[in-house]
What does this fold into?
Amino acid sequence: MSALPEFVEETLPEKALIQLEGVTKTYDAGDIAVQALSGVDCAIDAGEFVAVVGPSGSGKSTLMHIIGCLDSPSSGKYWLDGQDVAELTARALARIRNQKIGFVFQTFNLLPRASILKNVELPLLYAGLARGERRERAMHALERVGLGNRAKNRPNELSGGQRQRVAIARALVNNPSLVLADEPTGNLDQKTGSEIIDIFEALAGEETIIIVTHDPVIASRTGRRIKIVDGRIVNGEAE
Amino acid sequence: MILLESIIDGIRDIKDHLGRTLLQLLGIILGAGSIVATFSLSVAGKAASMEYYRVSGGIQKIWIWDRPTGKVTLDAKALASKGLTYRDAVAIKRDAKEIDLVSPVSQESMTIRYREIQKPRDVMGVVPAYSPMNDVHAARGRFITDSDVQTAARVVVFGAERAAEFFSTDDPIGKTVTINGTGYQVVGVMEEKYFSFDHKRNVLRWMNRQVYIPLTTFFTRKGQTLETGKVSFMNARMIDIKNHEEAVDQIRKVLHRQHGVKDYEVLSRVANLKRNEQQNQMYDMTFMICGVISLIVGGIVVMNIQLASFNERVREVGTRKAVGASPAQIFGQFLSESILVSIFGGFLGIFVGKLFTDGIAALTRDPAVITPDTVIKALIFAAGTGLVFGMYPALRASRLSPIEALRTE
It folds into this structure.
């Protein structure tokens, strides 16, 4: 990575938590190159509650992956917490995902054979924490989402809404700078989905939360909407 | 920490898919099994032969025969040779510096009678050196002494079984028996010798069936002297087994000087042992190769199953990566899993190896012992297989891109 000279740090006062400049992403899909993102500029501050909306295929998931350090931009710059992550090694990206980012997926992505507690402990395991501390912090995170009493269960013994709450607890357990949720209510009925958004709403302010969704009702409950069409942000203003 | 978690995961995996895991491990089980069997049989075989050598006079014992062994055409001079004599024994004792004990023996079937029991039995003419040479000692009374030999005394010592045969419950000491018509006084009964490879047959039983008289007496009764009497065979004992080739060589030189032709054979137990060892190594190698091939095949199966399970778990790998597992951590997790299942296979293999060993031991009546050393070797081989063949699947998992992994349904 190209280290930022010190004066640059100083001349960029209060850099946003997330700062993207001219980010593009091109995939090779066989013979044709698919342009998923074509020049995204965007800044999100710590503590914001943001919805990324747009039609399917617009590139919002790709944006999400880049923000989440699961993928890197083809060109352009991305600073997370003031750090340029564009050219980091796989190992360094893993560390950032572990320390700074919590993911919530549409399909929950819990490990089916591990207990709820073990699932929530997983990020702490890769962070190298001792067993006792892992347990304590995981229990605390489970209590935050109201599932302290299901720690010993396995994921298939829980309802969809409960599973997603476990996933949220897992996302929160490492005190990340950023929680990313990719269609978190996509596999849930309306009522349960609404309850999940209640949890995010309660967390808003304490945590920086970005939700990718195509549901306008959910989007309307966030503090700011970023609309993407054809790989470009068409409206990134807070209301 | 992560290692421990991976091990716990691995154990759960084995438990959840026991049938599949067993199939997966068949090759490793058989491989480890045949390694256990190889070492058990060969270690025990070696230990048993060493023990046999020890109880029958040690590996420093040398055999000297009065004719070359094997198919050799003897020339007229060799045929006319008088064979071994007492003088040869004296010369070896005097001139072969690596030899500290020489025991010439003359052997013939004679008629032994005690009261109404009369039977033809082998009788040995010996000198006192016979007893230390063969590590056989008088249990009651005494063995043949130097003074017996000097005076050609008419005394006899019985092996344990022969004593029982002729005297039954009588005390043999002091009794008189006739051998080929001449009266002899019984002065001693030897201890009972026992050694068995299979806990059934006593391979030292022949020692219990001996009847000993002084070598001089043996010759005198046949009208011969120490110079003319024929010695059937001799044993010699070397001082240091490190110089076994030199010891044999010295004896050969002395005999060649005495006889002028090669009408004798000198064999040392050390040389014999070495030859046996070479042969055993061949067997060991064959078994080992079978074991190693099984392990390789087992390793390939482990690799395939790991790859299959990896495909099943692509999403899981993606999730783990999303929450911050580094490539090295994923690599370690997959690798420790395949090592763990392989060690599990190795453990099962030890039991299979025990069955093999017991089976072979029962069939061939060879001794077999499973030593901790063998168990450790089998486990190391199994773990090594897991390590080598787990490498590729682990590498693939670690290199998987998290997005692709998460996209996989």
